[in-house]
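Batch 3, record 17
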Amino acid sequence: MTEQRHQVTVAVNGVARRAEVPARRLLADFLRADLGLTGTHLGCEHGVCGACTVLLDGAPVRSCLMFAVSADGHDVTTVEGCREPAGDLGPVQQAFLECHGLQCGFCTPGFITTITAYLEENPKPTEEEAREAIGGNLCRCTGYQNIVAAVLRAAELKREREAPHE
Amino acid sequence: MSEKHVGRPLLRKEDPRLLRGDGRYLDDLGRHALAAAFVRSPVAHARITDIDVGDALDVEGLVAIYTHEDLPGRIAEPLPLLIPHPDLTHARTPYCLADGEVNHVGEAVVMVVATDRYLAEDAAERIQVTYQELPPVVGIDQARAAERLVHDEIPGNVAARSVQENGKGDAHEAIAAAPHRLTLDLAIERSASMPMEGKGVLAHWDADDRTLRVHTSTQTSTSVRLAVAAKLGLPPDRVEVIAPDVGGGFGVKIVHPWPEEILVPWAAMTLGRDVKWVEDRREHFISSAHERGQQQRIEVGFDGSGRLHGLSVEIWHDNGAYVPYGIIVPIVTSTQLLGPYKVGAYRVEFTSLYTNTVIVTPYRGAGRPQGVFAMERTMDAIAEHLGLDRLAVREANLIRPEEMPYDQGLVFQDGRPLIYDSGDYPTMMRMIRDLVGWDGFEAERAAAAAEGRRIGIGVAAYVEGTGMGPYEGAHVKVETTGEIVVSTGITTQGQGHYTTLAQIAADALGVGVGDVTVVTGDTRRFKYAVGTFASRAIVTSGNAVAVAAGKVAEKAKRIAAAALGGGVRAEELELADGVVRHRDDPARSIELRTVAVLSNPLRYAFDEAAKAATQFAAAVTAGDEPGLEATGYYMPERSTFAAGAHGVVVETDPETADIKILRYCVVHDCGVVVNPRIVEGQVHGGVAQGIGGALYERIVYDDAGQLVNASYMDFLIPFATEVPHIQTAHMVTASGVNPLGLKGAGEAGVIPTSAAVASAIEDAERDRAVVVRRMPISPSELYELRKGRVHV
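Prediction for the assembled complex:
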């Protein structure tokens, strides 16, 4: 009983990555086990907690609910790809640091990716919108208040960093 | 002197790593390890009559299949009873793999090892276990009725029965003699810690070195080490246990050794290959521990001002199928129930009962939410009975600051007397009154009513024993680079110890927090520790770090005095800004890192720093040990008692009975605060779990003992949209039992939430005479209560 393997090519954080995987290999397991990108975490493996959220062509998806073969030919952004090009913390990551938006850090990657995508859509959210924006991700540590603050702070940082330099 | 770091809201040192995606959680390790999966019982109570592995044998990548029959020596025996107690007369603990009988859905029966987890699960699915089902005992009512037994040889399903009295007279007589009396029957349902990362174990056996290295997502690596060594028959010095980054614990990961913590290392030794097991979410629901789950009967006698004369409480506690963690939860409930109050004569009796369900062990709060619910529901019932203000009744019973330290006359969970060391409860109650807007609330209620809305307000207070012993320790070392390395045996699951312990060390050594690196939960670095639970880590380990760093500072002064010469004495020196300097003449100074060099007299100059310390150059103090380092321990005489009060305003929908929290306020006293940003975060997280326990979270078993909501779709952890903004106010009554004045903060937020929310809902519904006697409460249950139906 040998599983058939399939060639998959995915542009992960801007770099083309190739691997041969069984059809049933989850995108999350592909990223973590085949590519060694362990920043993406699995909290429930049934699509509720959002810890495994990555961006597929810029839109948040649960990588525990998607097969690696389905991502063939697509762009994927993980938490590792939410840094600045030089490796410094990206605006959402920096905002989480400043606002104490994480405790154990396990759910955090899913929040980082979700908020990164959200701020592209809504660069200047209100507090209420910020709370709604993270309403699909579970965190067991923070009570969310500091994550809401981090969304607002990230929007600020993003605007500052994207403002044309004089 | 440099500016102190303790007390400042510094950003966390651990965060950049975690935010970049560079954390190292259990499943991020051991990429090439074999994977384990388990066949778990699908039934609640049964005898195993056959295990047929035939169909699994041709699964590609299968390495091994183990049942109880395959387990050698002590691994085949039951797991240890971690916390024995004289009242725990009928203790049963589980086996690593079931030995012919299963007692709850999820109990491990067969272990499968394969080249990856997909294949291990393929094989597990093909293993046929035949069960001869027995009638299950589910829920406290069935356990009490004892028409069926969980364990044939344990009469009445009773694991333990325990009585405590506070030495202030006979409670029943005091109640009988009091001007007023009430009886309340209460219940709290099951919930669970539910950290976002489940458990997991990775084991590596080095056959050449005969050393076992175990990584496990635990709250106590030192104790896992001793337990694994004992079970596997290895000398403890041949076992290393490391807690890597841990994705939340909240109590469930203090239990140890879990079956997998024995089986995975044993398989790694047996197979000579690295083996890893990572718990999935369903496994976590059906095989890791739950908590809460009590029934209570309260009898109280009081006078016309609401002052208690006597209190008698009977508790029926569901401990699940086994009691590996003893009876800590009901002990905590029965002692911490008293809160900030003087209750007159007190008698408490608890019965800890077996059921065919997952084991019950501490979850954040650890029995306190149940106790506070009992006490605060009682306070509200007294106010209602007498027509008095609910806060006035509470205030009439408060322990006064001038009565501190206050002996409650009971034995606490650490076996020491329940003596509150410090606290100012009247101030605390005044603060929550102001913060939640108690005095102006009737106007607010009237304004809401004019809009057809109904709102209610509630307050609940608690006292929490924190920082219990027996001890914690730390090792502090100044490297020749100037880096300070602090190693402590406590583990960390997000509480910010890499930052808070660095703050304490930095102050003792006159360096910046950036110069300090903290190592936790790694037995290779520090072997003696108890663990992180019971809001104890910062109290015990923080004081130990201060002791060790203080010793290092003294040693640095001795060596620096000798090096500086000119008659300088160690007592005249201080540590600041990374140097050891003369107090009155700061120009006479020597860098701390140079002192570290001098502290280790060398024969061989292997680099520039070492050259300064060779035998012809070094200023060495005779009699000292080499190295600018020291080990220190803190052993508390007894627990230190934190306190707080929560106030909440809720709105209940007149039609749908939907319950919405409009305002949530917290007054919190955890003694001297090391890092206010981190403490605030701990409070927020606790409150969110408290709100989950008040309105959403419940573990539901059906009559057959099936856990019917074993997923995040059905077990309702609050999302951001369910947790309100939390307003906090802090007060500081320094601990009377430890040098730094610290009290624990980890569990506080969760403790009084159900009690406060119940009070507020009842207040909002007072026109309809709704009486809330059990939590959590859903809109449909409130709807039924409005119709006068009993809440079951």
